[in-house]
Family 43 glycosylhydrolase
Amino acid sequence: MRQESLAMRRAREREYGKDSTWYFQFKYAPVTGLGYEEGIHRRDPSSVIKIGEVYYVWYTKSSGSSVGYDTGDLDAKVWPWDWSEIWYATSDDGVNWHEQGLAVGRGEPGAYDDRSVFTPEVLAHNGKYYLVYQVVKHPYLRRSKEYIGLAQSSSPDGPWVKADEPILSPACNGEWFGEVDNRHLVKHRGDFDSHKTNDPCLFFYKDQFWLYYKGYPMGEQLTCAGRETKWGVAVADRPEGPYTKSVYNPITNSGHETLLWPYKGGMAALLTTDGPERNTIQFAQDGLQFEIQAFIEHPPEAGGPFRTEHSDIHPLEGLRWGLSHEINSPWHYIQRFEVDERTKHLCNNKCNH
Ligand code: AAL
């Protein structure tokens, strides 16, 4: 008599056989203006927004190679996103980009953002523009905490006015063990975001400002599913805050850079890179309780989607195309991704024969 294997039971209980509405693949294409350039890193693009007939994107830009933490030189560039600035570019077609210049630079020595500003995201709301991004204070050590900053402007071309202090901070309930700069040694780990708050993504949602972000704990360990990154969300009445972290945090058990888009009153998300549910598309009708909708191959890294105004017409409308980064080369650069639903047609053709 046929029996159900454990694997098939798991698939049935977790509804892995759901329909393919949210399933698709990605294809990639080079862009001009933000592509590979010797000596320069361009990475972590924001979402793409369209103002009039022009597309805009913001991104991390830095120059020179990074050398890690162990040089003994506190000024040495430790990561490609260290000693970075936020630059922006425009395009008429989403493929050919023109770098326009600096949007947000580092703060004066002693400021909360004097070491690096990077990984921006943009929100256009009520005639104003908001950039949210990561900030690090000098010196950049393994145990440095990472915060979220905000700058606002009445024009996408700036000038940008920074908030006086970060708008989001790591939880302060962890405790390091000893004085050595080792981020794995802790007395208490604290919350999932006790070490770093990264990858902000800001929405005006349900009449409030929802700031999704990625957190790392102090004392991070490697698990059977890789690194321990998870996402949280914090909500405020004004873009500048104060932000209150959700009681449901962390709201994902996986994921690296945040990528979300609205769909029929809820939030869809692409989780990549880390954790047991990496490379999945998830959906939460209330923006908080996410469930897997599809398993994805080769998702974009640090993708910034172009979200159309008509995101409700199809689940994938909020990420038909966008920009992502490519980091498997000495100098990081930006490329274009597109949703590719060809597999569905192939499958349907096959099934019909
Ligand atoms: C990225 C993002 C954040 C991290 C680093 C730069 O892809 O997750 O921005 O801090 O890597």
Remarks:
- The chain has a mean pLDDT of 96.
- The CA atoms of residues 25 and 340 lie 5 Å apart.
